[in-house]
Amino acid sequence: MIRGTKILPAGRWDAARAATSYRADYEGRFRRRMVLTLADGSEVLLDLDTPTLMRDGDGLALTDGRIVLIVAEAEPLVEIRADSMDALLKLAWHVGNRHIGAMIHHDRITIRQDPVIEKMIEGLGGHLTHVHRGFDPENGAYAAPGPANHHHHHPA
């Protein structure tokens, strides 16, 4: 079986070269080894050294020379906003203190929907908006360095 063995970070490869794509939610993109069914119906064995989050726009280099475009499937998320930057920073601390995956933007925090966390955030004065889009959370403080754990800027 053809294997996918290397992640090419988004922006560092020509996406026009993609032979096909792999679309999945966060769990489906945070893997080390599994069979992936690609958009063209073919299957490849994902075979990475460590569990890695394949981010939206990344490429998966296959052993036959092809590249697969990684696409973050839309999923239920919550955007958190606050009345001031100080208030947003405090909310970010509470989210981080609970070890919740989060996308950090200049004016908001995006997390996966979770009724318990949403109630906490509202109780702390946060404003919530439910959205449906791809989720690419920040890497943890202990994430392994290297191209598979690169930083993404998330536009407003």
From TrEMBL:
Entry-linked InterPro entries: UreE, UreE_C_dom, UreE_N, UreE_N_sf
Domain UreE urease accessory N-terminal, residue spans: 1-68
Predominant localisation class: cytoplasm
Keyword annotations from UniProtKB, A to Z: Chaperone, Cytoplasm, Nickel
Skewed-composition ranges (Low complexity): 139-148
Subcellular location: Cytoplasm
Region annotation Disordered: where it falls in the sequence: 137-156
Keyword Cytoplasm (UniProt): yes
Domain of life: Bacteria
A Pfam family this chain is assigned to: UreE_N
Coiled coil: none
Primary role: Involved in urease metallocenter assembly. Binds nickel. Probably functions as a nickel donor during metallocenter assembly.
HAMAP family: UreE
Family from the record: Belongs to the UreE family.
The name this protein goes by in its record: Urease accessory protein UreE
Organism annotation: Sorlinia euscelidii
